[in-house]
Amino acid sequence: MHHPIAIVAAGVVLVFVQIALALSGYSPMPGAEDALAGPDSYMRLLRVEVWANSEGWRDVGFPLSNAPYGETLHWTRPFDVLLLVGARPLGWLIGFRDGLYWWGAMISPLLQFASLLALSWATRAHLSNRAFVFLALLFVTQPALAAVYSVARPDHHSLLAFLFVIGVALFLRGLAGRLRCCGAAGVIGGLAIWVSIEGAAPVVVALGVLGAAWMVRGEWYLRDVIWYLTGVALALSVAMPLEHGFAALAALEYDRISIVHWGLIVVALTAAGLVERALRRLADPGWLARMIGGAAILAAPLMLVAFVFPDFLGGPFVEVDPALGAIWLDHIDEVQTLNAGDFAIYLGPSVLAGAYLAYKIWRRRQQCYSNSLGLIYLAVLLAVFGSLAAYQVRWSIYPAIVALAPWVLLLRAMFQQKIEWRLSSRIRIPLRTPLFLAVLSAPVAGGAILMSLGLGASAVAGLASQPKDGAACPWAQFAP
Q: H/E element holding 421?
């Protein structure tokens, strides 16, 4: 961790920016008429209230919507538990309903500060105290992250972002040879899958990087794969009975954790264990043996999907009536495709960070492969989640997080350059400040220029869900 003064300074920056966003109208003002960010926030708190007052742990039906049948939600219980744990003590002082509201209004900023602490732990070896405070400023002002961690937005995406930071930090340590860190990263990945199926994407990327590293270089990377899969399997094995109960463990669900996801991980883990045991008998397994082993590990879960869970290929919404896509799902802000202006603002830092990582990987090409693997992992994360974010804006939180440290290191490198403009032998104008400002402002400036040219308005101008005709839905009136 960085120095306590740096941590306090980062916390002050966080509080200042959150207040500024609320006063500017970008995020809701707690206690105001439109007191929460959009319908999902109201739905989440109402769901927890219903659960706390009458319903059981595993009853995911929501009776207040779609009357008289109720509505079955794909949300799981971990974020509900965080809301309930904080609301109960406040309820003793101001009543449960008010306690739930105020805790729900504050939980995402609290998770943002927890994510800052995790970022400090992850970057301590690479960033000075002052650089970390600057990273904190970038962290709280990125549009994608400001939306997710907003005040009055009790949404599980802030928890997913927090788990993502921890998982990446642990995985990077695992790549350095700490097998237990790989196992711990797998546990975090399993918890993220429990929170939302969206959490499976970082797990797939991590396994892909480890598998590719093993097939190319061999060494201990297959053990890393086994440790990581073991961590994911343990987390899912605990989550399954907690979420569904033992009586419903065999239920097939694709939009939240179920035996489908547990089965894929366990089959992959079993295949990896068998391949590791088979290759152990070879004195020096070559690249061909590793390629065959990797193909076998990959084929095992694919065969399970093909013969047992074929609907898995249809995605998490495979059981949803297709008509809902046209009349509802396709019009939600967070599933919109980024236009040119949005791309510059949301993914501009990722492009700059990716260029910096590519340069560092190229500079290390003649050094030990393991020294570059962490950089390669970050570059793959940027490429995968940047592509997903260009397709749907909801994925933009992940490249925004990954880009932070490389972007800060690039800015530091720009400021340390001794490039200057010589007007004469005696008059020299240093250019490091203009370079620094150019790299810092490039995403916003590029987005503003593209928008001025008519290449798109911001897809997520604020946190409130606004219909295309501009008439706001009165969620605060509907909720009671």
A: strand 420-422
